[in-house]
Amino acid sequence: MHHLTLTPADNAALTPMLSDLARAYKTIEEPGLIRRAPVLARLLPTHVLEFLEEYRLGEPSALCLISGLEIELEQLGPTPPHWRNSQYDSPALPQEIFFLLCGSVLGDVFGWATQQDGRIMHDVLPIEGHEHYEIGSNSLQHLSWHTEDAFHPCRGDYVALMCLKNPDLVETVACDAGDLDWSALDVEALFESEFTQMPDNSHRPENASESTGDPVVDRLRRRSFALIQSWNDDPVKRPVLFGDRTDPYMALDPYHMKTDGWSERSLGAFQALCDQIEAHMQDVRLRPGDCLFVDNFRAVHGRKSFRARYDGSDRWLKRLNITRNLRGSRAWRPAADDRIIY
């Protein structure tokens, strides 16, 4: 893992800068803050910028961890019962800004119209009633390992998690493609467009608000949900691997993949890959102030099950999607500077 621990001197320099920015903006979702983030990122300590740039270009590991960001747990208040409206009056706004700036060093942050009502920064927390649902807000069920948004051609290059609370040290799990023995796998079969990737449950309309209050946004969002449904009804066949054949990138989400109609070779190659991934899975126990960046081309990730208490003390993370090619999703976004994919 590519790892950097912030020092007391780093925190002493960051705290006033982040506090000033938190006073200048009401929420992390303000378009002005999102747009300025790549410029504001230059205020980060030089060694933090260099560390993130090495991760971005050198690909030393699929996992990158910045730890040691100061968080006063008593100031956070209770873990929200739901992600709706949790961005307002956020007690963690300074930390959210740090997370945003780090993410903006790696690329452009973006959101989905079909996830958390089009927010850029998501809350990852247990929601009562979701205990056994295959979605990030579940608890009693494992969140199966996956490529984030594997089904979508505009999926991010990175998915990032910042820990605010994790009192039970619930494990995030991940597998780095660099740990796999590609010579033992049928790579050529996995490069063929023979594998069906289904949309995951987090993009379904039942997990969104009925209306945003904006008729234009609601119309575009209905179109997105209809497209998602069409991909469920008639899945698109795609490769599981892409890029360089000796050191490939991955895109797979076994829980949401239909194997009907796959050839015997495709099934065998896919199962062998999944078996290797299972054998090389590692646990990451995030602690308050940890910011974990997962290369979404080079790793799969998930989460082990836990028992939520729903008393305000539960695990609470923030999540960002980051792309290195915002223009690649231009056909899906209403304007060049719009960060939401419809």
TrEMBL record:
Residues 129-320 form the TauD/TfdA-like domain. Belongs to the clavaminate synthase family. Gene3D superfamilies: Clavaminate synthase-like. The keyword Metal-binding applies. It comes from the Bacteria. The lineage of its organism: Bacteria, Bacillati, Actinomycetota, Actinomycetes, Micromonosporales. This is Arginine beta-hydroxylase, Fe(II)/alpha-ketoglutarate-dependent. Fe cation binds at H146, E148. Coiled coil: none annotated. One of its GO terms (molecular function) is oxidoreductase activity. Pfam families: TauD. Keywords: Iron, Metal-binding, Oxidoreductase. The keyword Endoplasmic reticulum does not apply.
